[in-house]
Sequence to fold (365 residues):
Amino acid sequence: MKTPRISPQTQQVLERFAERPTGWHYGYELSRETDLKAGTLYPILMRLAKYGLLETKWVATERGVPPRHTYRLTAKGAEIIRDCLAKARPRLRARRVALSGSGA
Amino acid sequence: MTMKLNPRTMAAALLRGAIKIAPKNVAEWGRAMLCELRHVEGDWAALIWAAGGAVFLARHALLSIIIPGDANQIAPPGGKFFAKESPMRKGTLIAAASCLVASLLLFLAPIFRQAFQISLEQWRPIFQIHRRAPEADFEALVRRARANHDAEGLAFAAVHGAKTDEGVGLADEATHIDPQLTWIYAIIAARNPLVPASEQWAARLEAWDPQNAIPHLMVAEKIHIAPFNPSHSRTKPKRKRGRARWRRHFNLPKSTIISTG
Fold:
C-alpha cells in the first residue's frame, strides 16, 4: 500500500502533539510553536479532528473571557501518528538535506 | 459614540463576517480562531491571524456552494489521513472540466463566434492590434461569392460596397444568378439616385413586382434631385422642367399642383 504523504506543515503539528500526547493544546500556542499562520494551521487541525485523530473541547479559562478551543490526540490518533511519523521522518529528513544543499 | 478602529477591532470584525458565511461544520473552527484572537500578541499579528482564518472560512463557504454535502464525509480507509481529500478534488475537477467543455462548445455556434469576435473588436485599438484592411476582406468575400456562384453573397457585396460602379456590376451578377434578388437595385438606387441605370432598374423592378411603389419613388427621387446635381451646375435649376417630367412619368394632368417642398 502506498504510504500517505505528510506535508511538512502537518508533520510540524503532529510533532507538537507527539511531544505531549496526553496534553491539551491551544490553537495560538500551536501556531507560535510551529510558526504556522491560522489559515494553514486550522485546516490541518480540522482534518485531523474530522478523521478522529484529535479530540476537541471548549474550556473556560477566566471569568468573563470567552472559552478557548483546545485539542488533544485521541488514542487512535496517537497510534496512527506514531506510525506515520516513523515512515515519514526518513523521507522528510532526506528532503531537508537535499534542500539545504549541504549534503551533510 | 465613536468606535475605535484599530487592527484588532478590524480583525475581529473580519473573522465574525467570515464565520457568518462559513458552512456549519467549519463555523465552529472560525469561532475557535476568533476566541484565540484575544491571545494573539500584537495588533497587526492579530489582523494577519484573522485574515488567514477568514480566507480559510471563505474558501470553505465557496466549496460548500460548488460541492454541497461535504460535511458528512467519513474518514478514508487505509489510514490515508494525510492524503488530499480526493472526493472533493475529483468533484472540483469534474465541475471545472464540465464548465470548460460547455463554454468551448459554445464556439461551435457561428453566431456565438461572431458575437465573440465583435466583443473583441473594441479592444483592438487599446492593444494596438492591427487587422487587415476591410477592403481586403471585402474583396475576398466577392471572390468567394463569384467562385461559389453565391447570389446572396454577391447581393450582400453589391449593397455594402463603397464603390457604386462595382456595386452595380455585382447586382447584375447576383440577379443574373437569382432573379428573385432584383430588389437589391432598389437599395442601390436609394443610396445613389443619380446612377444612370436607375431608370432601367425602375422598369425591371416594376416588371418584377408591379404592385410595388418603389420604382415610381426611384424615378421621382431622380427627377427631384437631378437639377441640383453638381454635374448640372452649369445649368440653372429648372423646377418647371422637373415638374413636367413628373407629370409625364405619372400621367398627371397639367392642372395637378406639384409641390417639391
About this structure: Residues 43-66 of chain B form the longest helix (24 residues). The radius of gyration of chain B is 37 Å.
